[in-house]
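Try this one yourself first.
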């Protein structure tokens, strides 16, 4: 009897131990699961979901630490760099967000392959990356990293079957001791990057305090831009376009400048996107057409020559239903032969709404106006639109002209564009010609027209006229 009872008790004890073990295991499992979830949450709070790079919060935290550490250790150095992909918006708009995302991921990988393990690469969002570089012996080492990044990104990326050319603009703060907070450091790197964009992209600038003077806040800009047209602050500069064989000036491209009362001349890349967003591009755009056609008519008569005028159009302007009608009115007022007016459109514009754009372009064409594609090759658009739309001329973007003679692929692209254009009965203008070598190659490839610093920068009205006189 006693034995049976003892055995019975043993059985109960065993069961209970098993039960307790089971509960313990379950608890342990739930704990580790919860821990995992917590870790995941903590990770995602600190990292960018697309690239898994540190996000702004984590990056700023590391930057704050680096700043604090350098205060205590005089021989410790660090640098902060801001990186922005050039023309990312164009790629995103023309090839879609999916390709845009893949390009960001690819760029992130390439940037990361250029830094050392101790450095931090972060993504702030969009096409903006940031670097925290630490512990180099001298500033040159930091700049070497930037040069490496520049080179790494220059190799074309093949994404979903598209070959995409990218470059980056960078800004770096090297004298990090001179600034107090992480926010200030990052802002200065951003300002230096902005300076790079202003001076033509695809490079880096080192921040110095003088750059601060040129910075205008967006709010200030908008309020000043609202008054600029009425205050006659816009002016046009004219860059000659030459026939490649005769080297004769055949016409000019009108390029907008903003003569700010205190800040001096502001280039279009710094404010056109703002007036586009504000909707001011339409009235300002009409002013450009009015002024440029008046000017070219004056020169045509003065020099007794069929000079043409190239005018850039924004997407917003093309969306205007009565664009052709209004332009016609301006042409009549200035008594300009429509065949001497060339309108430059960008590829991204054409991709957006091919049917609507076709209608507008046909209306313009019916007036006798010529249509040209600007910055050709950077829109990454399908080439299918070229034969569907009434287009007369392609302008090869200067990034391709730049590569001429530097690498075989550079010449191949230009040659391909020329063959394509000529096959479709279009003419070609090469933009951004800077060297005799580029000119010689373009001439050999049978490009018709050239434009670039080799011949002249965009000129004031007086200088353009003087150049016409000389020729
Ligand atoms: P874009 O139409 O492609 O104009 C050519 C730009 O390349 C001009 O810059 C010109 O100064 C620059 N450039 C010309 N030759 C060379 C060269 O040999 N080397 C280098 N590095 N650059 C060269 P800009 O005047 O600063 O104009 C920038 C852009 O602003 C223009 O690019 C155009 O897209 C836009 N823009 C200018 N005026 C207007 C306008 O009236 N309306 C609209 N919607 N956009 C305009
Ligand atoms: Mg243009
Ligand atoms: Mg262009």
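Now uncover the answer:
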């Amino acid at each position: 009897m006693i034995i049976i009872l003892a055995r019975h008790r043993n059985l109960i004890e065993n069961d209970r131990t098993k039960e307790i073990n089971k509960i313990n295991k379950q608890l342990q499992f739930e704990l580790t699961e919860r821990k995992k979830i917590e870790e995941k949450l903590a990770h995602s709070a600190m990292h960018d979901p697309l690239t898994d790079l540190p996000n702004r919060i984590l990056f700023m935290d590391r930057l704050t630490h680096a700043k604090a550490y350098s205060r205590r250790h005089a021989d410790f150095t660090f640098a902060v760099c801001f990186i922005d992909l050039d023309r990312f918006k164009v790629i995103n708009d023309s090839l879609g967000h999916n390709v845009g995302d893949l390009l960001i991921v690819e760029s992130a990988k390439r940037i990361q392959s250029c830094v050392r393990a101790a450095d931090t690469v972060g993504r702030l969002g969009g096409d903006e990356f940031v670097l925290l570089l630490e512990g180099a012996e001298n500033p040159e080492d930091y700049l070497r990293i930037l040069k490496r990044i520049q080179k790494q990104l220059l190799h074309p990326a093949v994404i979903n079957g598209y070959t995409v050319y990218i470059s980056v603009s960078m800004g770096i703060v090297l004298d990090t001791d001179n600034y107090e907070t992480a926010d200030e450091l990052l802002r200065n790197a951003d300002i230096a990057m902005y300076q790079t964009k202003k001076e033509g992209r695809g490079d880096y600038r080192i921040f110095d305090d003088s750059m601060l003077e040129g910075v205008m806040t967006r709010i200030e800009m908008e309020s000043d831009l609202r008054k600029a047209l009425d205050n006659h602050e816009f002016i046009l500069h004219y860059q000659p376009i030459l026939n490649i064989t005769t080297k004769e000036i055949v016409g000019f491209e009108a390029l907008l400048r903003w003569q700010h009362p205190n800040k001096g001349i502001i280039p279009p890349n710094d404010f056109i996107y703002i007036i586009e967003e504000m909707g001011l591009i339409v009235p300002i755009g009409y002013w450009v057409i009015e002024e440029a056609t008046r000017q070219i008519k004056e020169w045509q008569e003065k020099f007794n020559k069929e000079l043409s005028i190239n005018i850039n159009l924004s997407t917003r302007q093309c969306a205007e239903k009565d664009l052709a009608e209004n332009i016609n009115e301006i042409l009549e007022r200035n008594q300009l032969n429509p065949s001497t007016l060339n309108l430059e459109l960008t590829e991204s514009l054409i991709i957006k709404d091919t049917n609507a754009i076709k209608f507008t372009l046909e209306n313009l064409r019916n007036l006798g106006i010529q249509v040209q594609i600007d910055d050709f090759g950077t829109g990454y658009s399908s080439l299918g639109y070229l034969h569907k739309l009434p287009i007369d001329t392609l302008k090869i973007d200067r990034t391709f002209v730049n590569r001429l003679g530097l690498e075989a692929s550079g010449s191949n692209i230009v040659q391909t564009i020329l063959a394509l254009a000529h096959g479709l009965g279009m003419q070609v203008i090469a933009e951004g010609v800077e060297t005799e070598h580029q000119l010689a190659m373009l001439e050999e490839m049978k490009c018709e027209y050239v434009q670039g610093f080799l011949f002249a920068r965009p000129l004031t009205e007086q200088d353009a006229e003087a150049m016409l006189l000389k020729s």
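Discussion: The chain has a mean pLDDT of 90. The pocket of magnesium ion (ligand 3) is lined by residues 374-375, 395, 431 (CB under 6 Å).
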